[in-house]
Amino acid sequence: MSVPTKPRKLVQLAPLGFDRVVDGTPVTSSALLFQFPVEILSHIVESLSFSDLAVLAQVDNDCRQLARSIQFVHTVFDFRRPSTCEFVEALEKEIAEGPVSPVYRRHRRIACCIRRIKLYAHPHVVQGLPVDSWVSRVASLCAEAFPNLYSIEWQTPNPQPMAHHELLVKLQASTAKHVKFDAVWEPLPILPLTTTITQVENTIPWNLETLDIMYSVLSEMTGGSSTVYDLFNPPTLAQRCKITHLDLRGCDGTIYEWFEGLGTFERLRSLRVNVNPASDAAAAIRFLENNTHLIALDVGRVGASLRNTLLPLLRSDFKDLVALRLVWDSDEHEPPAGSLEMIAGIEKLERLWISGPGRLLGQGYGYRTDAGFSVDHSLVLQSLLPFVRLRLRTLIFTGDTYTVPGPHHPLLAPQAPHSYYDMKRLPHGVAVEDYLTPEECKRACGSLTCFDFEESRREWRKLEVVAWERWHHARMREHAKAYFGGLERLEMAHVGMRPVHRDELLDSFVENGGFGCEKHGENQRDEDGVFVEEFWDKIVSSV
């Protein structure tokens, strides 16, 4: 089970044109906004603040609906709040009144404005009804009331309500193209389910493009005579769906055996999986053997047993693979040279991300500095050169750590790799002043003559950290420069939590006072993995 530290956007949401939220009713407003073409009107309103939108909604009916198209584009159904139930009832009333109602014509519908919904289904009683009853009503709204619905994020501490065949068929009948199931466990009592389970014939073609399962949802769902397996079964999912991206990193190994039985997902282009424990490796490999047409692949927890079967498979059968990310397991202290050579032999590989076994955050992008693996960049370059000299465009290392050369006091022990980012100690023979500006050197001299010893020590330590960051960045730039020299098409290298671009390599030294710091500041290490996460998502989307 994984609990993300930072919510990840399921899809990028485009603005909705005003003509799609008015139900065909002509615009009668005299407001100047409606003199702009409808193609850019939503982009203008999108830049307004919440208070401005509230004022706009008071002008007239057309302006109210225009404001709603932004206010309700992202709607949260959180059943911990009583107002959510009132909102559900209001949406149901819109359906009941229908288009002939004068109220409908005067006020138009909120439901047309809803594009993305996020539902928190906590297992407790809400206004006298079990929460799964309210969940079922929201699912009915998805199928019947939201003509512009684009994505659904289903979050619950109890995955069982998602098991109902009827509920999932309602989601299938919606216009949503992106669905995310995220079960975040909480120590709350699980009440008996009351939703009636019915057998529904699956004849509806599903427009689904992205399925994101963040928890062992499938293995936990046992909702009576019908489960999620009955809905996601051949040919419903594998043949009818338009899934191009599949994220299974939060699921246990049983899901691979199940997906293996679905055969080939012909439209699937991007896959993210975790293989843990190692006993799941065989089922995961068989699943991958059915989908060798992937363009982007992200595999977590790559231990020795999986590596020995996965890498030969990727090299021999994945002829279209462009982007590959591998997270090494904790039993690996450095990337083996043989594995690097096997990776380099993948025919069309252009984007490579190798992550160490550090303590991962979120879905595995961020990493902690108290763990990782040592990287010998000269060995990596030597392994890659014979194969990818003309192809590799992006090379990313995360969780990589280093030793500090030279003798040190044994109590400090900065040569231990796992303390590299914590200790921030310069190597023997490198003076702090070598990496400080003249103004900072004056501060350093002042701190040494300060009568307040504790204050003097704190100020000196701050300057030591500044100097270490600059020294570390210069060191990582040298590694990046070696990669750029050997890999002719390489555009970006991410080493030591530092992204280095080829076109910035020559500029930044002069522009930042000769210290090799990046344009956006001297301490730009990607400590939480936000940069590399967003960068990789863009890569996967582009390929």
From TrEMBL:
UniProt cross-references to PROSITE patterns, sorted A to Z: FBOX (PS50181)
Domain F-box, first and last residues per copy: 30-80
InterPro entries named among the record's database cross-references: F-box-like_dom_sf, F-box_dom, LRR_dom_sf
Which superkingdom, per the lineage? Eukaryota
Name this polypeptide is given: F-box domain-containing protein
The species is Candolleomyces eurysporus
